[in-house]
Amino acid sequence: MSFLFGSRSSKTFRPKKNIPEGSHQYELLKHAEATLGSGNLRQAVMLPEGEDLNEWIAVNTVDFFNQINMLYGTITEFCTETSCSVMSAGPRYEYHWADGTNIKKPIKCSAPKYIDYLMTWVQDQLDDETLFPSKIGVPFPKNFMSVAKTILKRLFRVYAHIYHQHFDSVMQLQEEAHLNTSFKHFIFFVQEFNLIDRRELSPLQDLIEKLGSKDR
C-alpha cells in the first residue's frame, strides 16, 4: 500500500493525508495493506464483508492520493513549465482545469500547474469533514459517491501524464515497479466498483488491458 522510494521517500508533492490511528478507517487501511501483501490485487480491492462501501472507497481514495502524491513528487524536477507546457497524456489527450468554484471555465495550463490545482483541490475535498467524515457515526453525504468518482477520475490523469510524458524518468529512477503496482491497484479498484467511465481511461487503455490480462 505504501511504497518506499529509497532516499527520495520523504519527498511528496503535497503534504501526506493521514488517517487517524485507532479509528475504524485506520483499521480498514491496515486490512487493505494486509490483503495487498497477499499479492492478489483483484481480491485485495473487494469490499470486506460487513463493511460500508462509502467508507471503503473513502479509505482507498485517501491512500491513492498519498501514493500519487509520492510518485509525482519523485519526478517534479522533470515536469516543468518548459517540458510540459500543456497537461497532456500523449498527443491525443489534453486536459484543461476547472473546479466548478474558483475556476468555472476550463483553462489551458502547464502540467505542473494543472497537477498543483488538481492535488490542492483533492486535498481540500479529503480535508472536508462533511464530505469525508473521519468520526465514527458521522454519515457520508448523499453526493459522496459522485465526489469520489470525480477525485479518482482526476487522479487517473496524473498517472496518465506520468506514463505518457515521464516514463523514461521513472525508469531512470528505477521506480517503474512502484508505479506499475500502484497503478494496477488503482485500476483494479476503480473497475471493481465501476468508478471511472471507460472513455476517461482511454489514454492508458493498452496498459490497462495488459495489466488485466496478466491476472486472468
From TrEMBL:
What's the gene? mob1a
Q: Name one Pfam family in it.
A: Mob1_phocein
- Is Zinc a UniProt keyword of this protein? yes
Instruction: Tell me the protein's name.
Output: MOB kinase activator 1A
Recite the UniProt keywords alphabetically: Metal-binding, Zinc
Q: Which of this chain's residues are annotated to bind Zn(2+)?
A: C79, C84, H161, H166
Query: InterPro entries, alphabetically?
Result: MOB_kinase_act_fam, MOB_kinase_act_sf
Origin species = Salarias fasciatus (Jewelled blenny)
Look up keyword Zinc and say if it applies.
yes
Q: Give the classification, highest ranks.
A: Eukaryota, Metazoa, Chordata, Craniata, Vertebrata
